[in-house]
Write a structure and sequence with these properties.
The complex is a heterodimer of chains A (304) and B (587). Chain A is mainly α and 304 residues long. Chain A has twelve helices and no strands. Chain A starts with a helix and ends in a 6-residue tail after the last helix. The N terminus of chain A is likely disordered. In chain B, helix 3 packs parallel to helix 6 and helix 13 runs parallel beside helix 15. Chain B starts with a strand and ends with a strand.
Chain lengths: 304, 587
């Protein structure tokens, strides 16, 4: 039995593995990162199943129970019997459903915009940095020009030209976020380009695109992952800022950013309106950070 | 008379995440006043840790037990204050890498003077003038100007001399020199050893010389201790250890060093011409200031040679002579400025870039730094397979794996290691990976760019043996680049000596080593160290003084042809003096 176990192990080891397979194995072993992933999945699942989890609709206004405390809140409350487990907001809508609907928007914006910025930024930056010379100068000047556009002005123009639209929010935020990513990746690429293993790959006959994909990008992962974990919260906050200006999500739809900023106004009279959305947001961002750290460690073979 | 330094039963442990490492085991040694003790061992033998522990410089996870007496005073576990007073005063150290041991933002003069002001309480002005004296003593030209320069403005050899000046200015009783010449060219190494010898003879300073290279120790040490796996396996006078080694390990170390009289190997028959390089030039524009007109740095300045199937061409020269640039230009990794590279009758200028990529299977390269030339995020199996994947994308996974396995076996790597990462292997193993990657396409020509220079001497010998075996199997042509003439001799049929981008001598290996004509070749040869203490002590060296001149200086080419200095654009011409021996004009 032991002998077969050992042969199995040897066979397994001899079978070729790649960085990504190894990274997954290491990620699975990282408890904090796995906990983060699980919690994020739970939150995402809750957001998806929101309509089935509560008898209340997210936009059902009820003027009888305005700013009602959760039904388990200590002290007197008007809606002890109503079943609003997170209480209600200033027009009597159920906060639990609204937090979950907010999660839909916030997670979608956070993930999609970050993913878009990741894809464009990493590729753009790596290409500019690797090719260097005039191509690099041209590509990075374009980034500089886009950087210098005032963000709010840019969003307003988009809204005017294309009409107000949920997708536009992604486009607008993504269009700005990838610029920083491109700069970071380009800087890293410039230093990696000097390394001998890149020259070795060139000498082996590997083409420029393959070198970027196989050697440059895996080696910029460290700083990129750190920046991504900073981007997700940044994007969620940007979305709430745009919504606050009336350029983002419109009532009755909501997002965590909107809920938090509404709740902040009622902090003294109805603290639950701030506490629940803020709690969800904080937990989510925490989880993203753990997952990010886990990914960075998993993709570094020197860290075992 | 009591010993200057007496170490008895010293043990050093390191607490690591995966357990305790016993780095030094019951080591004992003693150094008398004015004596030089050589400590030899391969990387990881604990030779550096032994001395770091003795003077309280261990990393924070290290612990030392035993006894270390300096002039009869127990200093192991002494107070940091006492140790600080000792270090830099009575005991000083010289480390391997002179750039990282000098503070980058302090001028050289200030750094040298600092030790004196700190330990001997000398006023600043006196310290500065003493610093200048020291620079003169370590033979740095224009010492007045050098005092006001920063470390990065100096060459490697110059920096190491500054380190020696710093280490001697306080008039120490003992200097611990930890691989002081390993990072340097042979010619510079000879200069540095000359200075250390003078220190020992004139100032009667005791020296602890730590090195992996028996040759470095031979000319300097009075007594030698050999370390292996943290234990001292042999100790005795230099003559005893070198001429009558008792321990098998010592004998192995001595055998690994290429001997002066060793004949070059006939490695299979030499065939038809493969590569023809004609008047190759590579230059880079250099600007010191923004608005200055760019000047041309001629890294390779008109080199021609022919390489045949199965032949090895050794390329020798100091750092900065353009040997790596030459290799890269030949391999089409760098654009050349002028000249022709003809591969199997095809002028590579006429071949499209995409076509050249396909040709790369025929000419491959192995780099100097085995770790840096492998992608740290790629298991070695994938690194080895990479050229195959790039040039033959249609191979099935199964054949790919089989080929990688077979290649790994051929270069002496365990096939079960395909999933290891480069940092999990030793330097020698990584260099085998580099070789496997270069050989997997079955190239016709292999360029080894200082491929063994970063390795310990014993590993060097193994890799050279491996390369020779590969060559014999497939009539491989080799361009073997090194600054170390003795290694080149083991492999080469012909040797080409480069000086500032030009060939100064090209001859069959035998002729070049037995009958060198050019003064530069002679200087390089006399700088080669042999593990023979009597010969080393008696040797009269033809030392080159100072540094390699700047290749930007048009007159630098005429260093060995001073009679032509009136016409600074003149280039020394190669003259044939016998059938296979060309020498550049010289005075």
């Amino acid at each position: 039995m032991i002998a077969t176990g050992q042969t199995l192990k040897v066979m397994e080891e001899v079978k070729g593995r790649s960085l990504w397979v190894d990274a997954r194995r290491r990620l699975v072993r990282n408890r904090a990162a796995m906990a983060g992933i699980v919690i994020l999945c739970v939150i995402a699942l809750l957001a998806l199943l929101a309509p089935m989890l509560s008898p209340f609709a997210f936009d059902a206004i009820n003027y009888d129970i305005i700013a009602c405390a959760p039904n388990w809140w200590p002290g007197e409350t008007a809606c002890r019997a109503s079943g609003h487990i997170f209480g209600t907001d200033s027009v009597g809508r159920d906060l639990f459903v609204r937090v979950l609907f907010g999660a839909r928007v916030s997670l979608a914006v956070g993930l999609v915009a970050t993913l878009v910025s990741l894809l464009i930024g990493v590729f753009y930056g790596a290409v500019a940095g690797y090719l260097g010379g005039r191509v690099d100068a041209l590509m990075m000047r374009l980034v500089d020009i886009l950087y210098s556009l005032p963000f709010v002005f840019f969003v307003i123009i988009l809204m005017v030209v294309f009409d107000r639209n949920f997708i536009l929010l992604f486009v607008a935020i993504g269009a700005v976020e990838w610029l920083t990513m491109a700069r970071i990746v380009r800087g890293q690429t410039l230093s990696i380009k000097q390394k001998e293993f890149i020259e070795a790959a060139r000498a082996a006959g590997v083409g420029p695109l393959a070198i970027i994909a196989r050697h440059v990008i895996p080696n910029v992962v460290g700083p990129v992952v750190v920046y991504v974990t900073l981007t997700v919260p940044g994007v969620i906050l940007t979305e709430s800022f745009l919504s606050f200006l009336g350029l983002g999500i419109q009532e009755p739809l909501t997002s965590w950013g909107v809920l938090v900023s509404d709740g902040a106004g009622q902090m003294e009279t109805a603290p639950w309106m701030l506490v629940f959305p803020a709690l969800f947001m904080a937990v989510t961002l925490f989880c993203f950070n753990f997952v990010g750290d886990g990914l960075r460690d998993a993709l570094d073979p020197k860290d075992r | 008379m009591a010993a200057l330094l007496e170490i008895t039963d010293l043990n050093v442990h390191f607490a690591l995440a995966d357990g305790d490492v016993h780095a030094v085991k019951d080591a004992g040694l003693s150094i008398q006043e004015g004596e030089c003790l050589g400590v030899v061992g391969e990387s990881g033998s604990g030779k550096s840790q032994l001395f770091l522990a003795a003077f309280g410089l261990l990393a924070s996870n290290g612990r030392a037990r035993g006894s270390v007496k300096f002039r009869g005073e127990e200093i192991l576990g002494a107070s940091p204050k006492r140790l600080n007073a000792l270090r830099g005063g009575a005991v000083t150290m010289i480390f391997q890498d002179p750039l990282t041991s000098l503070t980058p933002h302090m001028k050289v003069g200030a750094q040298i003077a600092e030790a004196l002001m700190l330990h001997r309480r000398v006023p600043r002005d006196d310290a500065q003038s003493k610093a200048r004296e020291m620079l003169d003593y370590v033979r740095i030209p224009e010492s007045g100007r050098r005092l006001k320069q920063y470390p990065h403005e100096l060459s490697g050899g110059m920096r190491q001399r500054v380190m020696i000046a710093m280490a001697t200015i306080t008039g120490p009783d003992l200097i611990v020199a930890d691989e002081p010449t390993t990072a340097l060219d042979v010619t510079v190494q000879a200069q540095i050893l000359e200075i250390l010898r003078a220190l020992k003879n004139e100032k009667k300073t005791a020296i602890a010389m730590i090195s992996h290279d028996m040759g470095v120790i031979a000319g300097l040490a009075d007594r030698v201790q050999v370390m292996r796996h943290g234990r001292i396996v042999e100790s005795g006078t230099a003559d005893q250890v070198f001429y009558a080694p008792k321990d098998g390990y010592t004998r192995m170390l001595l055998d690994a060093i290429p001997k002066a009289g060793e004949a070059p190997p006939p490695a299979g028959p030499i065939g038809a011409p493969l590569l023809n390089v004609e008047d190759l030039r590579v230059s880079f524009p250099v600007k010191d200031r923004i608005f200055q007109k760019a000047r041309l740095l001629r890294a390779v300045d008109g080199v021609s040679f022919t390489l045949h199937r199965g032949e090895t061409l050794g390329v020798v020269g100091e750092s900065g002579c353009g040997k790596s640039t030459l290799a890269r230009a030949v391999l089409q990794l760098l654009p050349k400025s002028e000249g022709r590279v003809v591969w199997l009758g095809r002028d590579l200028d006429a071949v499209a870039q995409s076509e050249i990529r396909k040709l790369r299977g025929d000419f491959q390269i192995v780099f100097q730094d085995p770790l840096a030339s492998l992608d740290p995020r790629m298991p070695i199996g994938i690194s080895i397979a990479e050229p195959l994947k790039a040039l033959e994308p249609n191979l099935s996974r199964e054949t790919l794996r089989q080929k990688v396995r077979a290649m790994m076996q051929r270069v002496g790597l365990d096939g079960a290691w395909i999933n290891r990462y480069p940092h999990e292997l030793s330097g020698g193993q990584n260099q085998r990976v580099g070789l496997a990657r270069a050989m997997i396409l079955g190239p016709k020509m292999l360029v080894c760019d200082e491929a063994v220079s970063a390795l310990d001497v014993s590993i060097q010998a193994q890799i050279v043996e491996l390369i020779r075996g590969l060559q014999a199997e497939s009539q491989l042509a080799l361009i073997f680049i090194s600054h170390d003439l003795s290694v080149v001799r083991r492999l080469s049929h012909r040797v080409m000596v480069l000086y500032l981008g030009r060939v100064v001598e090209l001859a069959s290996s035998n002729k070049l080593y037995t009958d060198p004509q050019h003064p530069y070749t002679r200087a390089l040869l006399s700088a080669v160290l042999s593990p023979d203490p009597r010969a080393e002590r008696a040797k009269k060296r033809e030392l080159l003084t100072g540094d390699l001149p700047s290749p930007l200086d048009p007159r630098a080419q005429l260093t060995f042809l001073k009679s032509r200095l009136a016409t600074p654009d003149y280039r020394p011409k190669l003259q044939q003096i016998s059938t296979d021996h060309w020498v550049a004009e010289h005075d």
